[in-house]
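Quick one from the shared queue. A colleague (R.T.) flagged PilW family protein as missing a structural entry in our internal table.

Convert sequence to structure tokens.
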Amino acid sequence: MHNTPTQKQQAGYGLIEWMIGISIGLFLIAGLSAVFVHSRVGAQSTNQMGELQETGRVALQLLTQDLRQVGFWGLATANLVTRYNAVQSNEVIVPKLASSKDCIDDLGNGSFPQNSVQFRQFWSFELPANSSLSFMRCLIDDDANTQLSKETDVITIKRLLGQSMSIPSAGLTTATAPFFFKANNTKAMIFKGNAAAPSEPTLTDSETWQFLHHVYYLDRQLSTNTPNLRRLTLNTSGMTLEPVLLSGIENMQLQYIVENAAGKTSFQTSAQPSDKVIGAQLFVLVRALDQSHGYVNNNSYQLGDKTVQVNDNYRRLLVSTSVTFNNPVWLSQGI
């Protein structure tokens, strides 16, 4: 004989029990979601800060390697190369370079020393916010998808590269080549690297180095709103724009380190004739490539004597360093 289950034994979960169970489940899901979101945001923040630090480190390394060698002219003293009218007095022999292929500064100074213009081996200036450049036209390219970053510094450096080198008598067998600098302590000559070195009897006891002219500046990729560090480099075809050096460099400012007669140093945005410039202080503001949703950046960043205020969703990192020139620069013309 089978027992018939009672009504109580047949009953399942009631509505209230189901609602309690669902509520507990939703609570657990919400908690796990919050932990996941928080973990993801934290991971994104950590990754972006790591990328910012690495980008800032590389940017400073690129710039300081170049800046540290300002004033290096091999066997020729800086005074020989930068002396006013050194070309006219035949102390420095230079090739012809069309102005359309050069970077001409506000003094009319290009890549090489020339008559009646003070040769600048190192110079920086800030791109104006509301006016177009009447000089340094080499910075303006025909790429409709890039735009110069205004109120950021442009840094120009002219120097020699490293150790002296041997050059084939007929020159390098390449269509495009660097320029070379041949000098002793009384005479200097600049010539194309893919051509034979001009004959000059007074340079028989000379040595040869590669001649460099670099122009660093910032622009922005309009399609992606990506700020980039760029560099123009001199070769026998003129000032050539290299591929993007680094993405994420939003601002760049430089101050001169000047030493007075008493040996005290000061940081200046410009330097005057007769100043002894012993180095530079460099500030680089790095910006993440992507926005961080839920993160608001309304910080201000101090780049030397300039404050940059932002208000957006990009993480940033300010890095800086001081560079001492291996060859202190005495100016005949203010910078």
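Residues 45-330 form one domain.
The mean pLDDT is 87.
Added to the table.
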